[in-house]
Design goal:
By secondary structure, the protein is mainly alpha-helical. It is built from six helices and no strands. It has two domains: 31 residues; 76 residues, no CATH class. The termini are far apart.
Length: 126
């Protein structure tokens, strides 16, 4: 009878350990990254940066209404803003910069990373 009790105790303990280990962590890639990884390779103005700016910036910063004398609706105007030295700090909302977009949430970390990658790669147009 003692042999059977030890065997049942060991079997029960083993099953508990297996259940505990299998249920502790069940995150998967889709849960952690619902929109996929942030791809910063092959970034260009027309394919990557312009859609971000069109969604978040050009309502105020366009050629017809360049808020703060900054237009962000054409390649040349964005390159000029970047070279002006305040663009990246503003979208990063870094201390000492006017946080952009004003009156809205900060751009996603991925969008900021894509814009930074575009700048670091020499600001390719297409």
């Amino acid at each position: 009878m003692e042999h059977r009790t030890i065997r049942n105790l060991l079997l029960g303990s083993g099953m508990f350990i297996i259940w505990t280990l299998s249920s502790c962590y069940n995150d998967n890639y889709q849960t952690l990254y619902p929109s996929g990884p942030c791809d910063t390779t092959g970034v260009t103005f027309s394919a990557t940066v312009k859609p971000i700016l069109s969604t978040n910036c050009t309502g105020c910063h366009n050629s017809n209404f360049p808020s703060g004398s900054i237009a962000l609706d054409t390649y040349s105007s964005v390159v000029s803003a970047v070279k002006g030295g305040r663009f990246l700090g503003s979208i990063q909302q870094a201390p000492g910069y006017i946080p952009m977009p004003q009156g809205a949430g900060k751009l996603s970390d991925c969008d900021i990373s894509r814009i930074e990658a575009w700048i670091n790669k020499g600001m390719p147009n297409n």
